[in-house]
Amino acid sequence: MKLRRDLIGIALTFLTAGTIATNANAQAYQEVYEEHQVQETQIKKVFESEFISNDDRERLLTGIDRINKAQEQSNRRNIREMLAEEESQLAEVKQHLVANEARVAQSESDKLAEKLKKLEEKSKEPFVLDEDVQQIKEFNDRLVALTQTKKVDPVRAVADEVALFTTKMNLNQSSLIELVEELKGFNQSSAELLKKKYLSKDEKQLLTQDQKVNTLFFEDADNMTHVKEQKEASQKLIESLQQKQAAIQKDFDTNETQVKELVKSVDALLAQGDLISEEKESLTKEKDILNQALKMIDYQPGDLGEKYTLSNKTYHDARKKSDGRIAEAKKKAEEEAAKKAAQEKALREAAAEEAARQQAAAQSQASNHASPPAATVSGGWHQAPAGYKYLKVESGLTYGQVKNPNNFSLITVEEAANYRAGHGNGSAKQ
């Protein structure tokens, strides 16, 4: 493909042909060589083009082969004519390249337009980002600007971007769908949480409102940031309330029964205990605090246990004081009752003695009128008649024998049973 690159080669060639190379001829051949070098570089570049046809490639290769063979047998004039012919062919091939590239550019532009049309159709699907829709419009605008281009590079540059964008758009759509599925899952979690016992009215309203906002994205969404922000907010709310619900559940499971029992005990102490006004006021306040905790009024997780501990101490302190007062009052009452019983017994005994005395006096008086049997006298002692006793009225003592019967009353043995038998002395004996 190359001409001889040194003067010695040129000289030898023409000696063979019967001509001696002069310096002028050598310079002329050098110019031919340089011209061919330039043309050779251009041909190489044309061969590298994807737009060269097989026919054009074959024509150029044929011309190159002729020139290579002409180096061995043709003179400089013939070679120049061949180079001129090759140059003409090269110019024609270059025109073909331009035309071919223009056709390819148009073809690829048409294909790109078809891809963008499909993307436009896809952009109408749910969960396509608005920014991706706008990007498709920008690609269409750029394609319109390339309508008259005869170069493939600008078209391919846009096509490469569209290919990358298509992947990105699909990923964005998939990501958005996944986020929305998470929102649906959060709504299910909220529904389960709303069934729980220990949620306040405000917390239920927050969950219900969060469900409504999540639902807005179920059919379609076009902003990834908005959906992510809602996902984070919804997740934070649900996790917070789930943790709070668990803490409250634990608090009530541990303390609810004993708090209710304590409230009953406080009521009983208020109704039956011996309390001063300050203690009653304090216990009533503690009972109200416990009832508010049970109703979750101004409640925080753990309040039930804490308030039980404090109220239980107040209750036991008050009960201890009440029990002390009740015990003291009982002791005093028992002492008073014993004293009263003793007094009543003494009064009964005194009344009995008085009654006996009066009865004895009456019987004595009756005996005086009835003339009981005569006493037996022996050794100065008067022996009471059979069935009788002598009664010393002043002492309530009875005797069987006396020295001076006038100082005694004579009563029957039956009457004497109501008195005590006296001990013997100088004036009376049994």
From TrEMBL:
In its keyword annotation, does this UniProt entry include Coiled coil?
Answer: yes
Annotated signal sequence is 1-26
Please name the source species: Enterococcus aquimarinus
Q: Where is the composition biased (Low complexity)?
A: 357-366
Task: Kindly provide the name given to this protein in its UniProt entry.
Answer: Uncharacterized protein
Sorted alphabetically, which keywords does the UniProt record give? Coiled coil, Signal
Give coiled-coil spans as residue ranges. 69-125, 224-251
For the region Disordered, give the residue spans.
Answer: 337-381
Query: What's the domain of life for this entry?
Result: Bacteria
Basic and acidic residues bias locations: 337-356
